[in-house]
């Protein structure tokens, strides 16, 4: 039933198998985080599947819709859809053990954030958008899956409050764009972005770095 | 002020007047369910109109945006817009009597869910998308209007928790795709999908069937 | 780094510098209202930037996505992105003084609502959509930024409950369409819409006019 399109052939980073593998790991990790959020709201297994799907592939979907980039990625890759829904459902079985591998999970999540951001930048670059849109496309891909997850679970999105989560995406996008402007070779540039992004995210987690918070409680009436 | 386009001519299922009638009944029923949800949040009549519109036509809008299917359906059918807003406003007048026809309402709602799902499948098929996208397009059309309604009313979407609501959509889409693969004649296939979908939904309502719920309350900190 | 496209050249109302200035004032005021809402939820400065951006430019983005109008406005105007994010961040500094200029703020906000509505109508007209879509495009541009802001801040959208906010947008769109049908000259028509819209909004604020509220608390079980 699958279309005869090789996953590798059509992937926009076909030259790096590494980035594809990281991407697959990333959408799996995001799908699992979505499933856990659905479980906190006592959803049924259908709700779990939807939230897993939206968390993993929603960011890319919104990016493609904003940039007018059709057909949208996952519609050409049914295997991604199966992967994220399977990951979501599997999570309902193994959930009780997941907190034991919390560190692994956070690492995968950070790698996913960086992979998503780089892929988002690349899509906008290939479509010829100006630099500010390239950066926003990277961030949109990186963080809007998590925003959708939180909106559907009826809570204020954590990315607006968590340790430098979105800031890592921004830093990676800016670094990527800077390296590209300096005509650094593509593989090297990806590697540097990954190293810097991971370091920043892990340091932020370890030292609980946060951005300044804006608290405004004044009533106007 | 209406464009001179006949409702029947341009409807994608022009061969079945029946499905069109069911579709019109469906968007009316969905608009009314939206209006009731808005009333539970004490919205003004403008809010009622918006929620009625979004519940009835939002699913098709999201589907068309995801599939890149422009122009979006209702922009070519102003009469749909008038119909759903009128239904929403009328609901504010007759709301007190609606619970007396609860069974009729649930039946119309189930027919709407099935009609939406079949229409969604067909749109994706005509655009040449792979089978998994066809199924997701059907489900997106069937359930995302209700999801939007609940997000705008600031509550966790009920379709993630209600008796087999989304599952009926999934079953109908899979059945439709299966019958099509076996080259069953189109009218017969639609009829079978309706019968099976209605039976499943009504049984689920009667016996309070539910999908297994995933409940996860562990804190990681 | 900015593309060499003059802000004035490509603006769809190039003939009215006035409307462009009002548009810039409007997105600034909307960005500030977004930042204040983010502050009420104790977001970090990244969250403030996102909510400011979404409140100011989200309405136009949704309109363009619904109408299939690509590329989306702000992707061709990086300066708008810088403007709204700067306005959002600046708000965190000056927030404590803003309630003193409440009247100015409400005036700017009303002007923004009208400017957004007129721009939305014009975009749909240029794409050849039927009248009901023109009106909905205007309203979508005028009010959906505020709806997105409230959904992301996890509250029931205030536009569904506030003093004639959305109704002003509707009135302006209908008036604009009516004047156009009567072939009133464009500049005059814009002026009349502004005067009427501002008057209606300010009267509604002063006298606390509200639409009738629909309150429905009946449980069906």
From TrEMBL, chains A, B, C:
Keywords: Cell membrane, Membrane, Transmembrane, Transmembrane helix
Listed InterPro entries: Gly_transporter (IPR005115)
Transmembrane parts of this sequence: 20-38, 45-68, 80-98, 105-125, 131-152, 164-182, 188-209
Key word Membrane present: yes
Glycine transporter domain residues: 21-95, 107-179
Topology term for the membrane: Multi-pass membrane protein
One GO location term (cellular component): plasma membrane
Protein localization: Cell membrane
Similarity comment: family membership: Belongs to the UPF0126 family.
UniProt-recorded name of the protein: Glycine transporter domain-containing protein
Species annotation: Acidovorax ebreus (strain TPSY) (Diaphorobacter sp. (strain TPSY))
């Amino acid at each position: 039933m699958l279309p005869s399109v090789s996953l590798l052939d059509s992937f926009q980073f076909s030259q790096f198998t590494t980035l594809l593998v990281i991407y697959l790991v990333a959408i799996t990790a995001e799908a699992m985080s979505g499933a856990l959020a659905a479980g906190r709201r006592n959803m049924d297994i259908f709700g779990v599947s939807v939230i897993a799907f939206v968390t993993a592939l929603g960011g890319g979907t919104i990016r493609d819709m904003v940039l007018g980039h059709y057909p949208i990625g996952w519609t050409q890759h049914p295997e991604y859809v199966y992967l994220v829904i399977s990951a979501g459902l599997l999570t309902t079985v193994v959930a009780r053990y997941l907190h034991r591998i919390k560190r692994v999970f956070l690492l995968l999540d950070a790698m996913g954030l960086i992979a998503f951001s780089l892929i988002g930048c690349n899509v906008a670059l290939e479509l010829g958008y100006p630099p500010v849109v390239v950066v926003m496309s990277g961030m949109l891909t990186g963080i809007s899956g998590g925003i959708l997850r939180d909106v559907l679970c009826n809570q204020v999105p954590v990315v607006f409050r968590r340790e430098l989560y979105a800031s890592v995406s921004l830093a990676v996008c800016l670094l990527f764009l800077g390296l590209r402007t300096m005509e650094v070779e593509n593989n090297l540039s990806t590697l540097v972005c990954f190293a810097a992004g991971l370091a920043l995210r892990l340091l932020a987690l370890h030292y609980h770095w946060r951005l300044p918070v804006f608290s405004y409680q004044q009533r106007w009436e």
